[in-house]
Design a protein that fits this description.
With 322 residues, the chain is an alpha/beta fold. 37% of the residues lie in helices and 26% in strands. The strands form 2 sheets. The chain has a 7-stranded mixed β-sheet with strand order 6-5-4-3-2-1-14. A 7-stranded mixed β-sheet has the order 7-8-9-10-11-12-13, with helices on one face. Helix 7 crosses helix 10 and helix 8 packs antiparallel against helix 9.
């Protein structure tokens, strides 16, 4: 009996050691993966990566707004919301890889991760300034960030041998319809008029693949024209039904909720715009509040849109086929 007990104890100890060694090994692998530099990601075709799909308010399920467009090793980033550097890493895109950032507006939800993107990429290290395109006021915003971090940048540049110019940005402000080239991408930037803050919408094309980023509630005709025949329109939207339910349930901030709603595009309006533009797919982001189920969005859209209606989560990717 004692031999059997001793053998049982031996087997249990060996099994426990094996499990512990495996756990420690996996843990060390996770730590190493999190600390090691990522190689540049290469895309076979043209892909849209939803780095962050949240909006104005913090959401533990969604990072701030950020969408990456990749082809080969060329990556363009649209907006830099909360957690953008971590979101890029989760998508296997090193923060140094996007060489061009396109801002749709200077609302905090789009820019809170700007210093994170700028300085995390510099540590990679980025050797040349990050190029940023945005509406009027972008240059002043970026200059303020650079001034605020100037002391730390100088200290790290000297201590780590980093090129100071990699922590800088080269800014272009768009005040009229503009076209620029980025690798194989052709980019059209269009100012949107009539809103409470300067805003831009973008159309990016490579061959027959086209994606439009924008979707604020004002200047809809210009946005519809920009999105004409697009393969994908990434559009912000507002889940109005849930807001009204919250107000009816006695929400304490009902007036503020209604004021905020006036800024956003209700889902049926977004669908109607995409239908008029002939966009083949519509991806709704920054939903406020986010729906519990995707069918709620389809129900809210109703007959407004009959194309592919998507509600992407953080990390989702779409291959843009012609």
């Amino acid at each position: 009996m004692n031999r059997r007990v001793a053998l049982f104890v031996f087997v249990v100890v060996v099994a426990a050691l094996a499990i512990s060694i495996t756990w420690v090994g996996n843990r060390m692998s996770d730590v190493a993966e999190g600390a090691s530099a990522l190689p540049a990601r290469s895309f076979e075709g043209v892909a849209v990566v939803f780095v962050g799909t949240g909006g104005t308010h913090p959401d533990q399920q969604r990072r701030g707004p950020a969408v990456a467009l990749g082809s080969g090793e060329s990556v363009i980033l649209f907006d830099a919301g909360r957690g953008v550097a971590e979101g890029l890493r989760v998508a296997s895109i090193p923060p140094v890889q996007p060489e061009l950032l396109l801002l749709t507006s200077l609302l905090p939800e789009n820019t809170l991760g700007l210093d994170d993107l700028l300085l995390s990429g510099w540590l990679a290290p980025r050797k040349t300034p990050l190029r940023i395109v945005g509406p009027a006021g972008t240059r002043a915003l970026v200059a303020g960030i650079e001034r605020g971090h100037a002391g730390s940048i100088a200290a790290q540049a000297e201590a780590f041998g980093l090129p100071p110019e990699g922590a800088a940005a080269r800014v272009t402000e768009v005040t009229a319809d503009s076209t620029l080239e980025e690798g194989a991408f052709s980019i059209r930037a269009v100012p949107l008029e009539g809103g409470p803050a300067p805003s831009l919408a973008y159309r990016v094309e490579q061959g027959k693949a086209s994606v439009v980023l924008g979707g604020v509630r004002w200047d809809q005709e210009r946005q519809v024209e920009l999105a004409r025949g697009a393969r994908l329109w990434v559009h912000e939207a507002h889940f109005a039904e849930s807001v009204e339910m919250a107000i009816q349930a006695g929400a304490l901030d009902a007036e503020r909720l209604r004021q905020e709603s006036a800024w956003r595009t209700p889902i049926p309006e977004a669908g109607a715009q995409a239908r008029r533009a002939g966009a083949r797919a519509l991806a709704l982001v920054r939903l406020r509040p986010p729906p519990l189920f995707a069918f709620q969005v389809s129900s809210a859209a109703g007959d407004a849109y009959r194309g592919d209606l998507l509600v992407p989560a953080d990390g989702d990717e779409i291959e843009l086929q012609p």
